[in-house]
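assembly run, all chains below
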Amino acid sequence: MAYKNFILVCGGTGCESSKADEIYKNLLAEAEAQGVKGEVQIVKTGCFGFCEKGPIVKVLPSESFYVEVKPSDAKEIISEQIVKGREVKRLLYRKDQQKDIVKLEDIEFYQKQFRIVLRNCGVINPENIEEYIARDGYAALEKVLFGMKPDEVIAELKTSGLRGRGGAGFPTWMKWDLTRKAPGDVKYVICNADEGDPGAYMDRSTIEGDPHSVLEAMTIAGYTIGSNKGYVYIRAEYPLAIERLRIAIAQSKSMGLLGTDILGSGFDFDVEIRLGAGAFVCGEETALIQSLEGKRGMPVPKPPFPAIAGLWKKPTVINNVETFANIPVIINKGGAWFAKIGTEKSPGTKVFALTGKINNSGLVEVPMGTTLREIVFDIGGGIKDGKKFKGVQTGGPSGGIITEKDLDSPITYESLTALGSMMGSGGMIVMDEDDCVVDVSRFYMEFCVDESCGKCAPCRIGTNQMHSLLTKISKGNGELADLDKLERIGKAMTKASLCMLGGSAANPTLSTLKHFRDEYLEHIQDRKCRAGKCKDLVVYSIDPVKCIGCGLCARRCPVNCISGEKKQAHVIDLSKCIKCGECFKVCKFNAVLKK
Amino acid sequence: MAKMTLEDLRKLRDQRKKDLERRDVDGKNVQIIVGMGTCGIAAGAKSTFDAILAAVEEFHLEKDVVIRQTGCMGLCYVEPTVEVAMPGMPATIYGKVDADVARQIIQKHVVEKTLVDNHIFDRPAADIIKK
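ok done. output:
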């Protein structure tokens, strides 16, 4: 019998970690217990993107959008909605805790989005190949295998204008064309799923929510360039994505969509998973290939490019997860359709992982050319707790900070580079007035020091030197000459490093130096950190006039360094204070001072 | 599952498409709402609902029709009730809809665009509420 209702439970890593799996199991158990098992289909899907309000449960066809659902809510969802046909109003999404319930199509978070890559995320069950097939899955493969020559596939990609979504923006058609024309009978296809930027999780969610789209595109790539073997290089710390990918590969193989003689076309293609140990540098294609070959993951000089001599010195196409996920749609709808979306030089959409001090953190897919302001303030809902916007870090440790004055420039590969940042893989970290640029730059540089593979001197030594200079400034020992040194080392690293890890490691520092030089000067000349993040420059004290002696701060202090009689002014013992700022946060009378 | 041929893949896609289309809401412009309050269910709304599902399948309307359930519409004396809203037709509430009438509603109202006589009931008190 056909189902009357459908419950979609988010099964992305974000919602799973807040018990979405328990919700799913409870819903199944309740449906059984309440005798409506045959009337409702309960599906675990990929990420809905609205991670801020997770776990998310969507009920169709009533289009009820439930947020922050708990496992204990399962009983009510079944008994109210499925049995009696009434929405569970208390769980529906409301904006800013207001009374009005917002209809699904009116949620601003989704209004400006346009989903190509995430087309199936939150719609289908990623562990069921039939649902993917029903959404035109493997139709592109069918079209390519039985109706297109490799040249025509490349021509279609050229028309689409698709550029690599891993960050550098190299035209995908050119990569495929070079590999196809490279001499050699053994060639490889690699999917780069080694997503390593802090705060970025676009690729993880794409694989978790729609693994078959990547497999289908890899097979198309194989057919186009003349390869029979593909590898997905994915980091081991993505267990759910790996699991879903394994299931997807097994299903495709058993149905003959991977393996020998695919769909009776005579074309063979197989995909294997290779797990990465989580080194940032392995996201760089040549280092990734080294790691795939079983060697230590270190980049090698280009040329030769992977298209000529890649994996085991054979011609290799290596594309990012998001790039691949676009391809079945381009084949199905045509390159011209795709080229109309976005801007002329950067067609299509881009997925961003919006995190940091923002109201709606989550996964968003917008047409290229959308402005940062639209992403941060319309989709993202603005800054948390009404604080002031300071900047957005795009491209993670390789990118730069974009400030208020540039918020209205449309996002394209070129515009971000011109602003001293880069597209990167799509991490977007929003900062507010409480974030200190020196501290942020120091954090990213520390990350690069840890992740530098150490092969080339500019990166190995440069990141270390810049890190110690930044640490010196954040401790209040900086000198004016240090700023010039930072810039000089940064520029040298950018030019001389072997790969983009070193080549872009100075970006956060250089861009903050450009946009927030006054804050660096404050740290050096006034020994002051206005955000209060550089602990050595902050001193907490209690204003004896304002303090009423409630003792709240003393109770909250983790090191017991606040003392005082009841109803008398308290004092902070600075020799013990660890400057955690807890007293400043809890005081209701503004009696704790931060200097 | 055994290896598929091109034929098998196409067949499987068409077959599964219907299941997923039923889940989809976007772009469907025929709304059928079944009153599933206690009164409705007691009067047999569940078999009405099943009959509508079957008829939608029979006439291949999965792409166009959303079937929702709602609570009591206030017409308890003529349950089960079914409301149909679609472009080009007045929004209509049908009462005393058993499985047979349900099929007629799909065939006549949705496909042939003619009302199903003897089962039309007004929205309660619609005539005394001024718009």
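The domain at 349-432 of chain A is CATH 3.10.20.600 (Ubiquitin-like (UB roll)).

Chain A touches chain B through 35 residues (CB under 8 Å).

not gonna interpret more than that til we talk
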